[in-house]
Write a structure and sequence with these properties.
- The chain is globular.
- About 45% of the residues lie in helices and about 15% in strands.
- Helix 7 (about 180-185) links the parallel strand 8 and strand 9.
- Helix 2 (about 35-50) packs across helix 10 and helix 12 (about 310-320) packs across helix 13 (about 345-360).
- The strands form three sheets. A seven-stranded mixed β-sheet has the order 2-10-9-8-5-3-4, sandwiched between helices. Strands 1-12-13-11 form a four-stranded mixed β-sheet, covered by helices on one side. A two-stranded antiparallel sheet has the order 6-7.
- The protein is α/β, with parallel strands linked by helices and about 375 residues long.
- The structure holds pyridoxal-5'-phosphate.
């Protein structure tokens, strides 16, 4: 049906109507007094969302640009970095680091499994000469629907003492507890089209004082993504280059909505959405891709064996206007992924699960009692 599209991909995510209205306003000048006030409010609310007193800088980039800024500003060619690789995004940060001439040491896990914090502990403890300059971790690995144990890995980084921890929090920030100051995370990157409930185009980087110390001696070339420029201007509530004004005005509204909901409520909602989705998938007899305890509150990956993943996606789209994500790289055709990140409610999951049941029936898959998925999701919603 026209104009009825329901996005269940892990970004871009659905945008609330109030935010869409904010986007539709005439742009105002980015050097105007009015815009200074917008930036001042955004900065304060971004610190609230990030649970930090550190700088949280806004760049006109996608999530990858935010990560690139988070890596190149604090390192020099030849620096040894440990990169956690258990999916498409972890691999991307290894490739990016290699492209900039860093000495990449990968800590890997099979796609679909979480990284083992012990592997980090071993490498960090063995590094008595303190050659490891940074540990780069994807918190929520969107490509597989796996959440990595950032808290434990970070504890090993802290025990090392020297290395910075650089976090891809693109699908975890604003979905799961990520107390930057309490954990002492150095660099945390995220992007607007995920939990922020606004369209793509803005990247965010939170930077600790320890990372700013590293910035002073870091030698990788930087210009547009030179975070020092953004920090200097942020102190005056302005930006070094023309920012996406409409997106930032929309972000004002989105952050106000998030504040009204409250951080704990946002986190428990995502947890509930994940639990309901996972329980529904199990009740339908479909295998979950991420093991128990390692599911991402942003996205659930399903690896069906008795029905074709791409056919499920096709029917969900054609019959029900629900867009699911497919698998990436070698997982293409093997999994489908249901995003539940950002502006998503219990009702959305009930609707999606019901549509999934109808889709499975249409495809001739009968490995479940009709209504079992919806009942399982509803059970989570009535007991949480
Ligand atoms: C979406 C996403 C990114 C950023 O991708 P862009 O297309 O550059 O916005 C980075 N990491 C993860 C885990 C993501 O889900």
């Amino acid at each position: 049906m026209d104009d009825k599209l329901m996005l269940m991909i892990p970004g871009p995510t659905p945008v609330p109507e109030r935010v869409l209205h904010a986007l539709a306003k005439h742009p105002i000048g980015h050097r105007s007094g009015d815009f200074v006030k917008v930036i001042a409010e955004l900065t304060e609310n971004l610190k609230w969302l990030h649970q930090t007193q550190n700088d949280v800088l806004m760049l006109t980039v996608s999530g990858t640009g935010a990560m690139e800024a988070g890596i190149i500003n604090f390192l020099s060619a030849g620096d040894r970095v440990l990169v956690g690789c258990n999916g498409k995004f972890g691999d991307r940060w290894a490739q990016l680091s290699e492209a900039f001439g860093l000495n990449v040491d990968k800590v890997t896990a099979e796609w679909g499994q979480p990284l083992d914090p012990e592997h980090f502990r071993e490498k960090l403890e063995a590094d008595t000469n303190k050659e490891i300059k940074a540990v780069i971790i994807t918190h929520s690995e969107t490509s597989t629907g796996v959440i990595n144990d950032l808290e434990t890995i970070n504890r090993h980084v802290k025990a090392h003492g020297q290395a910075l921890i650089i976090v891809d929090a693109v699908t975890s920030l604003g979905a799961v507890n990520l107390p930057i100051d309490e954990w002492g995370l150095d660099v945390v990157a995220s992007g607007s089209q995920k939990a922020y409930m606004i369209p793509p185009g803005l990247g965010f980087v939170a930077v600790s004082s320890k990372a700013w110390e590293a910035y002073k001696t870091a030698k990788l070339p930087r210009f547009y993504l030179d975070l020092g420029k953004y920090r200097k201007d942020a102190a005056k509530n302005t930006t070094p280059f023309t920012p996406p004004i409409n997106l930032m005005v929309a972000l004002q509204t989105a952050l106000q909505m998030m504040k009204a909901e409250g951080l704990q409520n946002i986190f428990s909602r995502h947890q509930r959405l994940m639990n309901a989705t996972r329980d529904a998938v199990k009740a339908l007899g479909l295998p979950l891709f991420a093991p128990e305890g390692a599911g991402s509150p942003a996205i659930t990956a399903v690896a069906p064996t008795d029905v074709d993943a791409e056919q499920v996606r096709a029917v969900m789209k054609k019959r029900f206007d629900i867009v699911l994500a497919g698998g990436q790289d070698h997982l293409s055709g093997k999994i489908f992924r249901m995003g539940h990140l950002g502006f998503v409610s219990d009702r959305d999951i009930l609707a999606a699960v019901a549509a999934l049941e109808a889709t499975l029936r249409e495809l001739g898959y009968e490995g479940f009692t009709p209504g079992a998925g919806v009942a399982a999701a509803a059970r989570v919603f009535t007991t949480n």
